Amino acid sequence: MIPPRESSFRQALPVVLPFVALAVALTWYVQDNGFFWDSILLASRYGQWYYQTRFSTLFVPEEIAGYPPLFGMYVAAGWHLFGKSVPVSHFLMLPFLVGIVWQLYLLVRRFLPPSWLFLSLLLIFLDPTLLAQSAQVAPDVVLLFLYLVCLNALLQRRHGLLGLALVFMALLSPRSQILLVAVFLTQLLLHWHENRNLRLSEVLRLMRPYVPAGLLLITWLGLHYRHFGWIGYAPSSAWSSYSALVSLKGFGLNLVFLAWRLLDFGRIALWVTAGILLWRFKARFPKEAPKLLILLLVPLVTLSGVLVWFTNPIGHRYWLVVYVLLGLLTAHLLAQTPNLKLRRTLYVVLAVSLVSGHFWVYPERIAKGWDATLAHLPYFTLRQEMMTYLDQHQIDWQQVGSDFPNLAPPAATDLTHDQRHFPAKDLRRHTYILYSNVFNGFTDQELAELQRHWITVHEVRKGQVYLRLYRKPTAVTTLSQ
Description:
Elements: H1 4-30, H2 39-53, H3 70-82, H4 86-91, H5 94-111, H6 117-125, H7 128-134, H8 139-156, H9 159-170, H10 174-195, H11 200-206, H12 211-228, H13 248-263, H14 268-280, H15 289-307, H16 320-335, H17 340-356, H18 379-392, E1 400-401, H19 410-413, E2 432-436, H20 444-453, E3 455-462, E4 465-471
Parallel strand pairs: 1-2
Antiparallel strand pairs: 2-4, 3-4
Helix pairs in contact: 1-5, 2-3, 5-8, 6-16, 8-9, 8-10, 9-12, 10-15, 14-16, 14-17, 15-16
Keywords: Cell membrane, Glycosyltransferase, Membrane, Transferase, Transmembrane, Transmembrane helix
InterPro entries: LipidA_mod_glycosyltrf_83 (IPR050297)
Subcellular location: Cell membrane
């Protein structure tokens, strides 16, 4: 007789294996892509510090400090075991990608009928930001895995597993620390939904798994403050302005940006579909829908309630947990739709809408979350081509102004020994400007100046990405193209 757990695992394999294969194939495909966006700091710079110091100190240099150490230490430990390289860095993410597949399967199995397991997982994994982050060495992938572990631990009442996942979240990132609160609020609301009461004794009992994570978080923040004299952003750093409180106008803009991020890249179809189906089901609300609404809305409200008050730019990846739970809720509501033809039509529309998200490229003067869709993938080869062009024509990189994320040296982005880097753009000082539509830091006035008065020296383009080298019209050069 096959044990129940073994039988359940065998039933899971046909559903899970295609998505595990997708994770492996994606990792293999992007293994040579350098560090991108915030991963340049959080994975490469942090990882290299712990790698070079052999974990002899907990704290990184002040100019890059402000984040918990767990992710950087994990990357550094992987380099010590398997070698320091970009491919190794990508494959270090694979266990978490496989873990996300399994944790999502456990959630989908709880809320969807067997015939909908594969389709539900597919709808979730079609999210552009989930795929884009899975193609990077990104701490948000680890955060998603840990948050899903917490949700399954709550639903399965596995308090030990919950406590362990919370401990890791306490040391992963500032957003994972915020989401500790979301996990606790989710547990409280689920308890109230099931029991219709919430006594103080019950609240104190539910808090027990959170005590180790809370103590660890307080200890880390205390040690950080004692060492640096600040928490969050260094007052002297380029990021210190991001910790400032917003004005009333800034608060309104943050709400607009928040809504935009949630609807962007094809997700508008999921929100509209879920909203319409919830309204249609109001007379016979699906039994599990309230639980799924709790799972979705608590992290959304918790993160929003913190982030909208600060000047820190609101990135698409901040809501990765929300996107996944939105897909789960929408799939659940679709499965409850009795009209088979309507159900199939809606599913195809949703899938097409999410796939189209990789092709949502806004005009130059509108910032786009390039780390949130696979549209960014050509950037790495194009950047290398442009750097090769500069070297072949003996153009000094210090004369070439550029913008984030192209300011870090190849030693940080590609783990080479090349410490050269492009300075931050200054159209008055620099002879050349290296621009890409991947960069969001150019003002409208700077773009107009470049297009009207500067000379395009060289351009490389692939897919939706291009890099363009401009030269001042007054610059004297013998450059031959």
